[in-house]
Specification:
heterodimer; A: mainly beta; 7-stranded antiparallel beta sheet; two-stranded antiparallel sheet; 5 helices; 19 strands; 36% strand; B: mainly alpha; 4 strands; disordered N terminus
Chain lengths: 294, 476
């Protein structure tokens, strides 16, 4: 779009929007096929995360724990988390589809203003939706170096006191809960961050590390000034000079708590923009350019 | 010369019109490329089989067993520690499951057997069958019901054979092998990395294996005395001295090093340390094997980690320390790290099988003799005057120490519950384990994905208390 086009000034806007939806129809035998860091499974979008999570009503086998799961889940909402008598969730031995890393849509906004010989342009990238595990967080929980572990119960090796939380409430795995320990306040310290299944990359139980990895990124801002005064041609023998300064990856707005929602644990060859596991983030760069136009 | 004539003949008849050229287009060096073989020879397969058997006895399952039996312990909060705390799933031993069948497992063994049967080398056939018995017998120990009769062939989803039927097959394979070893043929000679083709040693090892696998059926047997009696018969012809031990071949060459040692050299190597249960027993009797098994802690002594009660870090021995604080299993000498030949089936095991079987059939003096035979190997003093349950405890405790790092320790524990171990029960251990040490392994996830006969993990957990069919009762 070019809303304003005048000899001395102008404004351009470019918009992009894309979505990609798919469903796996048939696999000719296996329950699933690995696809990068995710899987292809019939009835699901390609690339979904298949892993272990906690026992939830309607998602887990009701015969688990000698049938206690089925009993507790009777009449409970689908997805309610089962809480053991100790007050903690219990890992489901069966893998299931835990999350869909694919964005619901992606888009970008590009805009440029021109005023006489100045031009300012910017690019905003947007990825909306998609949930993957932040495995760096899980590892740092275990090491005790993640900021979440700053607030913790004090543990002496066998018992922990302080920093109590109730699963399902107060920003701590919010949602419906069932089971003998539902509503129980439990200390959260080394017992949770290191000695339970919470440190996802080491336990392969990814539920506690799941985070939405959508973002809005200010991908680029650039300022260009064009020198085309007569002296340029007279002294240098060229038509004009463009002086351009630009900055890339200047700002990210995201709910992702890792260092960059764009890193991928599976590396650059992974078709799934997956978990974060000590990969390199995008770099911020500043570029100055001089273009000589003949 | 033959080649150039054939090539010329082929070229000629192609030029002349192509009919009737069939016989020229096949044959040595025309239909097969000598530089790019499409089939391995039996000897090549046999070397691969042995490498696969050695690693499968020393890698993830062995480390898991070492930790669950508290001969080792996991620390550091990472993968190793998670395994030690029973945080395991269908992919924890997926690789070990593959090793039973592919890449030097059952499929290659059957190819070797077919080739040697065709070649008339009865000795080689017998040795291959012993490996097959060892391979599938250990699989039945770890997973219970496993694919066997349909495992090699065209069945896309092989059925699970009953564990007891697999053990029966193991016995019959070993009996056939013993007979075949007495037959004609040169055998694998130097390609046999264990015994260099020594028929007598293989025969003895086959008898010891028969005795071992008989004991795996005794817990649920209707007539235990019969099983013990058969075990005595077999073990009496079993490995007769430490020189006859069935051990892995390893060297200091990077790809040939002992897997326990290789793991020590990784980033996660120090996450597995000595286990308190074993070190306490060994400290209690000043066991001369301590410097073989472990390196010294920073106090200059030996100590182990307790999965339930964290021990001060300076009291815990690593499996290997920084030179010169090495363990002799990791570094037999400072220049031969990684070359230790891990024992799989030994004279000591054979003597302790005899001791247990005699003890359980009311012949305590004989049991004590065989226990003392085993104790003499590391140089421990003979015991006197012990009988009954106390003797069984001594026998199984001795076996627990002697078979350090051997998967067989887990079979002994599941049968006898000796030594008394406290399962990991602190932190948030999954209640699905019912406060017990897990009794078997999850089937491999890759097999589960494509083989509809494999039950879900939740069903596996719910079946027989996650124990194999031969394990009729829980340990405390």
């Amino acid at each position: 779009m070019r809303p304003i086009q005048k000899p001395d000034y102008g404004w351009e806007v470019g918009l992009q929007w894309a979505r990609n939806r798919g469903v796996v129809i048939s696999l000719n035998g296996p329950q699933y096929v690995f696809f990068g860091s995710g899987v292809a499974q019939v009835g699901q979008e390609i690339g979904v995360l298949r892993s272990q999570g906690y026992i939830h009503c309607g998602l887990s086998d009701p015969t688990l724990l000698g049938g206690a799961v089925g009993t507790a889940c009777a009449g409970a909402p689908r997805g309610a988390m089962y809480i053991d008598a100790t007050g903690f969730p219990v890992t489901d031995p069966n893998q299931r589809i835990l999350s869909n890393p694919n964005p619901r849509w992606t888009g970008s906004v590009r805009s440029a203003f021109r005023y006489r010989k100045f031009q300012i342009s910017g690019l905003l990238d947007i990825r909306h939706g998609g949930v993957v595990p932040n495995d760096v967080k899980g590892a740092l929980w275990s090491y005790g170096t993640h900021i979440d572990t700053q607030q913790r119960a004090s543990c002496d090796g066998t018992t922990c006191t302080g920093n109590t939380k109730v699963f399902g409430k107060g920003g701590w795995f919010d949602g419906p809960v069932v089971g003998p320990g539902a509503g129980m306040a439990v200390p959260i310290g080394e017992n949770w961050y290191r000695q339970s299944d919470a440190p996802c990359p080491f336990s392969s139980v990814e539920e506690a590390c799941l985070e939405p990895h959508g973002y809005v990124k200010l991908r680029e801002i650039s300022v260009t000034y064009t020198l085309d005064a007569p002296w340029v041609e007279r002294t240098l023998g060229i038509g004009s000079i463009d002086l351009r300064a630009s900055g890339r990856n200047l700002k990210t707005w995201t709910k992702w708590t890792g260092y960059d929602p764009e890193t991928s644990g599976g590396g650059s060859t992974d078709p799934i923009q997956g978990s974060e596991y000590f990969g390199n983030p995008q770099t911020r760069s500043f570029v100055f350019t001089v273009t000589l136009n003949h | 010369m033959t080649r150039s004539v054939k090539v010329a003949a082929v070229s000629l008849c192609l030029v002349l019109g192509g009919s009737g050229c069939g016989s020229f287009l096949t044959g040595d060096k025309l239909s097969s490329d000598p530089n790019n073989p499409s089939q391995a020879t039996a000897v090549q397969l046999f070397v691969g089989v042995q490498a696969n058997m050695f690693t499968s006895q020393e890698n993830t399952v062995a480390m898991t067993v070492c930790m669950w039996m508290q001969q080792c312990a996991g620390v550091g909060g990472r993968f190793v520690d998670q395994y030690a705390h029973y945080t395991v799933n269908e992919f924890s031993w997926d690789g070990n499951w593959f090793q039973v069948y592919t890449g030097g497992g059952l499929i290659d063994l059957r190819k070797i057997e077919a080739a040697e049967r065709a070649a008339g080398d009865s000795v080689f056939l017998g040795i291959a069958k012993i490996w097959e018995a060892f391979d599938i017998g250990v699989a039945a120990d770890l997973w219970g019901d496993v694919p066997y009769t349909e495992a090699v062939g065209s069945a896309p989803t092989p059925v699970l054979d009953n564990q007891s039927a697999v053990y029966d097959s193991v016995q019959s394979l070993l009996s056939q092998a013993i007979a075949e070893l007495a037959g004609p043929g040169t055998g694998p000679l130097g390609n046999d990395l264990v015994y260099g083709g020594d028929k007598a040693k293989w025969t003895a090892a086959a008898h010891t294996l028969k005795a071992r696998f008989l004991l795996h059926t005794v817990e649920g047997a209707a007539n235990k005395a019969t099983v013990y009696g058969s075990a005595i018969t077999e073990a009496t012809s079993g490995i007769g001295s430490p020189a006859g031990d069935l051990t892995a071949y390893h060297s200091t060459a990077t790809p040939e090093r002992n897997i326990w040692y290789q793991f020590q050299t990784t980033t996660f190597g120090q996450d597995v340390v000595a286990g308190k249960a074993l070190v306490d027993i060994m400290n209690g009797r000043a066991d001369p094997r301590l410097p073989q098994y472990f390196a010294k802690n920073s106090l200059g002594t030996y100590g182990g980690e307790d999965p339930n009660v964290a021990q001060p870090g300076n009291t815990v021995s690593p499996l290997n320390g920084l030179s010169p604080n090495v363990s002799l299993r990791m570094c037999p000498t400072t220049s031969s790290c990684g070359s230790f030949r891990q024992p799989f089936v030994t004279y000591q095991e054979n003597e302790l099988i005899l001791a247990e079987a005699y003890n359980q059939t009311g012949s305590d003096p004989l049991a004590l003799t065989h226990l003392n035979n085993a104790r003499a190997v590391p140089g421990l003093a003979a015991l006197v005057g012990i009988t009954g349950a106390a003797l069984l405890d001594s026998i199984m405790t001795e076996k627990y120490v002697a078979l350090y790092q051997n998967i067989e320790v887990w079979n002994d524990y599941r049968r006898t519950c000796i030594p008394a171990l406290t399962p990991y029960n602190t932190g948030s251990v999954n209640p699905q384990w019912r406060g017990k040490i897990p009794g078997r392994l999850f089937y491999g996830g890759t097999e589960m994905n494509v083989n509809t006969h494999i039950p879900d993990p939740s069903t596996q957990v719910a079946t027989n208390g996650f124990r194999n069919p031969n394990d009729t009762a829980d340990c405390p």
